[in-house]
């Protein structure tokens, strides 16, 4: 190279900017794909995690076909947000267990009112309708509990707290 001539090889700065631009372009593409996937992905039930079929409107109320829980689905910034339906706790609980029993063709025992009162007490104490026959306050124990949702009533004839009975 002669004195005063510039090198024809791209400088490190140019190379660095090119790589940075390429990385940002790929990130924008990935983010765009993720936004599209989230926008079309079905929301999940807040209790059991099952996919919910929702209409393409800004806000809707959807009942889960697995556990009977009513979910409020809101479309916000291309993302569907699932939350509980704002109702009086006793009404919410009664609707949930009635819908679950209807979906599974179960019946209730004579201890139904006693179990409902126990569930309401657990909600006041721990924040949700945890099964009265369970000792841990974890999401799997929210009524109807996971064992009941996966078929415990079919096997044993009733659920652990004797709320749901097989016909």
Fold and architecture overview:
- The chain is α+β, with helices and mostly antiparallel strands.
- It folds into 3 domains: about 15-40; about 45-85; about 90-165, Ferredoxin thioredoxin reductase catalytic beta subunit (Ferredoxin Thioredoxin Reductase), CATH 3.90.460.
- The chain is about 40% helix and about 15% strand.
- It has helices at about 10-40, 90-105, 110-125, 145-150, 150-155, and strands spanning about 60-65, 70-75, 80-85, 105-110, 165.
- A 3-stranded antiparallel sheet has the order 1-2-3. A two-stranded antiparallel ribbon has the order 4-5.
Number of strands: 5
Give the strand content.
5-15%
The name of the CATH superfamily of the largest domain reads Ferredoxin thioredoxin reductase catalytic beta subunit
Strand order of the largest sheet: 1-2-3
CATH topology of the largest domain: Ferredoxin Thioredoxin Reductase
| General shape | elongated
Order of helices and strands: HEEEHEHHHE
| Name of the CATH architecture of the largest domain | Alpha-Beta Complex
Main beta sheet, described?
3 strands, antiparallel
Q: Regarding CATH, which class of the largest domain?
A: Alpha Beta
What is the mean predicted local confidence, pLDDT?
A: 79
Radius of gyration: 27 Å
**Helix segment count?**
5
How far is the first residue's CA from the last residue's CA? 93 Å
Helix-and-strand structural type = alpha+beta
Number of domains: 3
Q: What is the helix content?
A: 40-55%
**Which residues sit in consecutive blocks of at least 5 with pLDDT less than 50?**
9-15, 33-39
């Amino acid at each position: 190279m002669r004195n005063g001539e510039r090198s024809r090889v791209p400088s490190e700065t140019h190379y660095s900017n090119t790589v940075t631009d390429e990385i940002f372009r790929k990130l924008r593409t990935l983010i765009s794909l993720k936004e599209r996937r989230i926008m079309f992905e079905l929301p999940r039930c807040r209790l059991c995690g099952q996919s919910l079929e929702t209409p393409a409107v800004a806000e809707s109320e959807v009942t889960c076909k697995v556990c009977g829980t009513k979910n409020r689905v809101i479309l916000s910034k291309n993302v569907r947000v699932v939350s509980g339906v704002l109702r009086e706790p006793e009404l919410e609980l009664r609707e949930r267990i009635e819908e679950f029993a209807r979906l599974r063709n179960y019946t209730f025992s004579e201890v139904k009112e006693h179990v409902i009162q126990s569930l309401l007490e657990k909600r006041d104490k721990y924040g949700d309708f945890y099964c009265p026959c369970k000792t841990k306050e974890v999401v799997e124990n929210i009524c109807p509990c996971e064992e009941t949702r996966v078929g415990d009533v079919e096997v044993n004839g009733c659920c652990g707290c004797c709320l749901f009975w097989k016909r």
